[in-house]
Amino acid sequence: MNLLKIDRLCVRQGHGEVLHDVSLTLDPGEIVTVLGPNGSGKSTLLRAIVGAVEPAHGSITRKPGLKIGYVPQKLHIDPSLPMTVSRFLALPGRLSKSTVAEALAQADVPDLADRQMSKLSGGQFQRVLLARALIGKPELLLLDEATQSLDQPGSAAFYKRIEEVRDEIGCAILMVSHELHVVMSASDRVICLNGHVCCHGTPEVVASAPEYRQLFGSGTEGTLALYRHQHDHEHDHDHDNHHHDHAH
């Protein structure tokens, strides 16, 4: 059974359609990346999935009782407000220290419980948001441009951890991004979105699709596959060589 099935979804805002005739499925344990330029409807798609936006047409079918974890693009916390990481994770309900500790360990930041939220680096902050999303033991993890504030090594490390989380707890992952290089190495499928589904398939297939090049401009062919290739290698010399190629 699909965790999620979207069938010919249309979402209207004002007089226009933000999403038109969008169909996709997501199965348990699957990693799917949705790529699209700003204004392409990616965040609207996520809001529709969690039920915050009503479709004008089409349907969204979720597995009954589907548990969803959500990692936002960013979250503003007043820096003058004293709040430790463990207190932040325990809001709004009361959670045990062991539950908080388990979530931080899953996000690979086990030592941050007593740190002030305002003192965290960008990468640490995103890991704490990931920990918060994991507390409910989700079957589906939604990532909304979760690495936008990170540099490429930080993005790669974050998504490597996401892949490990998928392997550990078996959740499916749906992530959206407008950055071409932010495609998780383990993505099963990539979907190009620009109000509608322009193309979809494995990262290699999408990277060579004319619709992808048309959407993101000339000279982009191979970007997805190259990034995927770079992170399939663990050897330092391979990584350095591929990073050099990618930079040019």
How are helices and strands ordered from N to C? Answer: EEEHEEHHHEHEEEHHHH
Rg is: 18 Å
Mean pLDDT, nearest integer? Answer: 83
CATH topology descriptor of the largest domain = Rossmann fold
Structural class: alpha/beta
Ends distance: 43 Å
* Largest sheet report: 6 strands, mixed
Using the alpha-carbon principal axes, give the shape.
Answer: globular
Would you report the number of β strands?
Answer: 9
Low-pLDDT runs: 229-248
CATH architecture of the largest domain: 3-Layer(aba) Sandwich
Number of domains: 2
Percentage of residues in strands? 15-25%
- Helical fraction equals 25-40%
Question: Helical region count?
Answer: 9
Describe the structure.
α3 (about 95-105) packs across α4. It is built from 9 helices and 9 strands. The chain is about 35% helix and about 25% strand. The protein has 2 domains: about 5-185 and about 195, 3-Layer(aba) Sandwich (Rossmann fold); about 200-248, no CATH class. The chain has about 250 residues and is of the alpha/beta class. The protein has helices at about 40-50, 85-90, 95-105, 120-135, 150-170, 205, 210-215, 225-230, 235-245; strands spanning about 5-15, 15-25, 30-35, 55-60, 70, 140-145, 170-175, 190-195, 195-200. It is globular.
